[in-house]
Amino acid sequence: MKKILFGALIVLVVGGMLWQSGVVQEAVMRSDWAKEKIEKFAGRTLDSHLQNLGRLGYYEAGTWTPFTTRQLTKRTWRSGQAFLVPHVAFRTVTDGVRLGRLPVKHENGTPYDILFLEIDPARVQMRVLVNDADARKTAYVKEMVVAQEALAGINAGFFDADGALGLVLKAGRKLRPANASPGYFVVQNGQPDIRIQRNLRLSDFEEGIQCSPALMRDGQVYRYVSEGKNTSEVARRSAVAVTHEDRILLMATDVRLAGLTIQQLATVLAGLGARHALALDGGASTQLYVAHGDVETDVAGWDPVPVALGVFPAP
Predict the structure, then answer these.
(1) In a domain, 20, yes or no
(2) Which residues of 244-264 are buried (b: 16+ CB within 10 A; e: fewer)?
(3) How many domains does the chain have?
(4) Which of 173, 208, 267, 284: CA 20 to 30 A from 54?
(5) What is the pLDDT of residue 1?
């Protein structure tokens, strides 16, 4: 009996150490079993609980400051109105790249971080990351960043079992055709940008993806962002934006469940200085990985993805 108890104790201790190390946690969270359980749990609870999280606000030194109705419904944002930047903790990743951390909290929730990269496109390069020649094969963003020796990466647009949906343009080669969405993240002569327009002449660009919905253009938040269908749906979010100072923002919510509504996402990006902004695929796809020097941050997703946006050192 003593041998059995001793053996059980050893199993519990070793199992606890592995769980605390994060190795087992990551393996379990990414298993098909965990995904199925999470989806069932989400289907039963998110509509009733997470949709009643209440107001969103930034959380600083134990003090919660809710966003005002004016901030959430404001449709025109100009340079100098980035009200959230003073509350962000920045850390330099490399020359031209900073990692920002904005603690937020819902009224009836627990605090979590919104993480984003602020990128000076004159000092680094941005390229599309794929896992094969037709943007079909999937991998986690962390795996893509490591394999392709990028500094950082974020998940891109929507996809299905057949691969990426919408344009995927890499090194001037069209891996996937464009669809009807007007939202593009493109690179032209090494300069990344957001274009929100139909019938874009793709031959002008060397890299690009499509993603939706478009959140704002020239500082103007689209009406459907605050008034359209499903604007109250809370979810994990990823986004890309261009600021009034022509910096690129790659943003992700670092939270397992809950997150932001589309309206809150637009307000957060505007509060960080965004002038143009697109939502990327969110939910289980949301991923942001940064690794350079002594900086490493991993917003892990549950689903591997076929396409990501990568940040590389300047040549």
Answers:
(1) no
(2) beebbbbbbbbbebbbbbbbb
(3) 1
(4) 284
(5) 61
